[in-house]
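Project standup — Tuesday

K.O.: blocked on the structure for the chain from last sprint. Re-posting the sequence here as requested.
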Amino acid sequence: MKSLLTLLLLVALTGVAFRAEAVPTQYGASGLVNQPTAETLNAGNICVGIWCNYSYVDATRKDALIVPVGITIGLGTFFEMYGSYPNLLFNDDELESGRGQTNLGAKIRFLGKRSSRFKMAVEGQMLRTISDNQAIDGLTDYMGRVIASLKLNSVGFHVNGGYVANESPAGVSYDDQTIAGGGIEIFPTGRLRLVAEGEWRSSKIANGEDYTEITAGFQYYISPHFTFNLAGSIGLTDDTPDWRVLAGFSGCQGIGTYQRPIPKLIEQVPLAEEKPAEKKKVVKIKTLTPLTPVARVKVKPAKVSPVAKLEVKVKPKGEEVTVDPSERLKIPGTSELKAIQASPVTPAPPPVPVPPASKGADAKAGPVIDKPTRAIVYRKFKMDELTFAFDQYSLNENGMKALALIAEELRKDNKWFILRFDGHTDSTGSVNYNERLSLKRAISTATAMVVNNGFDPERIFVKGFGESKPIASNDSPEGRSANRRVEILVLVRKEE
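H.V.: unblocked you, prediction finished:
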């Protein structure tokens, strides 16, 4: 009956694994509190975790207090290595707590990318027993397991299973063990993760008790790089403590975060609105097609649109998107407007005239979307990463000039259209952080289009996609650079 109850609890807790942020567990591998997930630490990142683990048993055995510490290193977008030591207190409580081994391991994700909903990974560990008992001190076991994860919008499920080959002490024969575990996680808010998990290990002593424990708790992301963990556990068999309390901090730092391409030194050509007498200066900018081309060779250059390098080709029949009224731009506060207006750009032109009404629409009221509406991407422009300050969402001087070029081009278009600003990031950083950063960049760009270029805010919508829609691989600096962008979609009604 007890074995049946154990099995039912594990089935309820494991299931099939989300949105697990890659933070280290008590054992070093990234995952929940104790159980690993198929997530891996991002390339160039390193995490350190320190825990307080207090367990209580009945009067026949003493309680135990240990302080485990672990370190996790991301060696690739799909590969991490980790290690942990069971007790910095050195009080010989490791075996009583059920945590008596130091470990060194590696995890490789072999199915799914970092942004995929379903992933699978394989993990291997070497575990060495730490004890004052010389008979068992130094015994080395080897463990391997397979992990599966499924991520949904705000909930995730994880399951794992594997095998442990145990080394036996002199005069005793240990059995090898089968292990299984898993967990469920829920994100009620962007910074809070609720966790429930279970663990089962078969006994390594003939006719002995299995090890079964269930845990529930939470993880709070104090910042994108610092996490607080708190959980409680209950043992379901005699070989486990009656109950346990876990508390820990983990800090992560992304070394690869600061990689960025170095722009070439080019000669900036003044825009048409600037004074002709102003001297040219050498600055670091992304090449933009100037409004006034300057011939540098005898051959007459071909005529190129000023926004040729900003416009992206769209499909011949157009790409369909759904525009929701909730995505309409809400102009930021007064301080943010002043910051945008104070940027070094040319004075704002007169308001953009509303194109002729279509299908009986009221031209004076403008194109208002009052329900989710399907639209066709008529034209598309791309603002790349060099139009923003690094890791910031405010447009820099080059970004303002690029946006002015796009606005001037759109004034020549006499179609009925609305604009949607889509923000995108690479995979560096947490999913929540990237979603917020992409939306802030979209809002900043859209606000500048209204404040500095005279566009009607009723016709402008914003959306942040984070890292979910890459246009290149995040495995290289060039690919990550291409993925950091804001796309401006010029949308027309589907019937047009």
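K.O.: great, moving the ticket to review. The mean pLDDT is 79. The first helix runs from residue 2 to 13.
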